[in-house]
Design brief:
By secondary structure, the protein is of the alpha/beta class. Helices cover about 40% and strands about 20% of the residues. The protein has twelve helices and 16 strands. The strands form four sheets. Strands 2-1-6-5-7-8-9-15 form an eight-stranded mixed β-sheet, sandwiched between helices. The protein has a four-stranded parallel β-sheet with strand order 11-10-12-13, sandwiched between helices. It has a two-stranded antiparallel sheet with strand order 3-4. Helix 6 packs across helix 7 and helix 6 runs antiparallel to helix 12. The chain starts with 6 loop residues before the first strand and ends with a helix.
Length: about 400
């Protein structure tokens, strides 16, 4: 594959990072020059990095002792979307799940967070080539944590059939692979339906914000929230008028998961003429970009906030939509490690307990609103309806 750029920056993370807050201390940038020697240089760089290790009590990546190179511990390599690690959302949950599984099962890990999509695609194709050609006895699992690489995954997965010790796990796709490898999808429609249905308890006007309209998970979540919002569970109790404004940060798949302050402020200001009141809620479905919107709502106000597991001590967060990606990853790696094998395809959603909505109203006034408008019996009925709707959407 030819790169469109002559320099690709790839960030490698090692297993000694036990907490996401330590990522910046533990990263190492590797610049690879893709000229006529591209293949040779990439092979050399990748081979060395796959054998990289971390100090037992620190966060420094170093060249391993030659005596350690023969380690037969299974190796799990994870490829994220560009700048995925550190998003305090989906990618970090994948990271946490992999590292917890590694601790439980004695695995080696390598986390790849490319700076560009081209860098990730090149790494993916070369890693699959190396895994398929490996002649040692090491078991290897490649986890692809972004649909940005969909074409490359589907074009190359059959190459892994040459090595019985190599396998692939592709996350966030509904469509199973034609070649070797397993897929895992976590439907978000149900949890987001419930989140939309109860939004009027908090605010009558909502800005529903997605990363881009070409990401399947984002679109599904947006649809779920919209469908739930337009139900009438609170007739006579919700604001007289409720308004939902839908907006996307970017247009193309892979974009919109990070955002500058200036762009975020512009997006937050755009619905001004559409909203009927100053009682507003912001629901972002955009990975790491959500952190920017959360920070701005804390600094300048203007919106209450619903995040992906935003259980924070904040007067602006009253309920959270949760997605237990870490638990799903641990479960699937466990199947791979045990020898029983990963299912060809899994779908783990609200009915399975892997997505949900958590209520955490902040302050006496909001607690009273939840108690009055969302008693346990009604909340149970909304959740059951959300599970049914998710099954219908599937």
């Amino acid at each position: 594959m030819k790169a469109d750029v002559t320099l690709v920056n790839v960030t490698y993370y090692c297993k000694a990072m036990k907490k996401i807050s330590h990522i910046e201390e533990a990263k190492k940038d590797v610049h690879i020059d893709y000229n006529k020697r591209m293949k040779r240089l990439l092979l050399a760089s990748l081979s060395a990095l796959l054998l990289a290790a971390c100090t037992k009590d620190g966060n420094t990546i170093y060249e391993p002792d030659p005596n350690d190179l023969a380690s037969g511990a299974p190796l799990v390599t994870v490829l994220y979307a560009p700048d995925g690690i550190g998003d305090q959302s989906y990618s970090d949950l994948v990271y946490q799940g992999v590292e917890e599984a590694a601790t439980m099962m004695g695995l080696r890990t390598l986390h790849i967070s490319p700076i560009t999509g081209d860098g990730g695609r090149i790494f993916l194709e070369q890693t699959i080539a190396e895994m398929s050609a490996a002649t040692d006895t090491v078991r290897r699992l490649l986890i692809v944590a972004s649909t940005l690489y969909d074409e490359e995954v589907r074009q190359n997965c059959q190459r892994l059939e040459a090595n019985p010790r190599a396998d692939l796990l592709y996350l966030e796709t509904r469509t199973s692979l034609g070649g070797k490898g397993s897929t895992l999808y976590m439907p978000y429609y149900g949890a987001m339906y419930a989140a939309g249905a109860i939004a009027p308890v908090v605010a009558g006007d909502v800005l529903l914000l997605g990363a881009n309209p070409k990401n399947e998970t984002v679109v599904e979540a947006m649809q779920g929230f919209s469908d739930g919002f337009h139900t009438d569970h609170f007739l006579g109790g919700s604001p007289a008028e409720k308004v939902l404004v839908i907006s996307y940060i970017a247009k193309e798949n892979g974009d919109g998961f990070s955002v500058t302050d200036s762009t975020a402020l512009r997006i937050m200001a755009e619905p001004e003429e559409d909203f009927a009141s100053s009682n507003r809620l912001l629901m972002p479905i955009c990975g790491g970009a959500a952190n920017t919107f959360y920070r701005l709502t804390e600094l300048i106000g203007g919106y209450l906030y619903v995040g992906i597991d935003s259980r924070k001590t904040s007067a602006r967060c009253h309920y959270s939509v949760v997605k237990h990606v870490d638990s799903a990853v641990i479960r699937t790696i466990g199947s791979w490690f045990s020898g029983e094998g990963m299912p060809k395809h899994q779908s783990l959603g609200m009915a399975d307990g892997y997505t949900d909505v958590i209520l955490h109203p902040y302050g006496a006034t909001m607690q009273e609103a939840f108690d009055e408008l969302l008693p346990d019996e009604k909340w149970k009925a909304i959740r059951e309806e959300a599970i049914r709707k998710e099954a219908e959407y599937e």
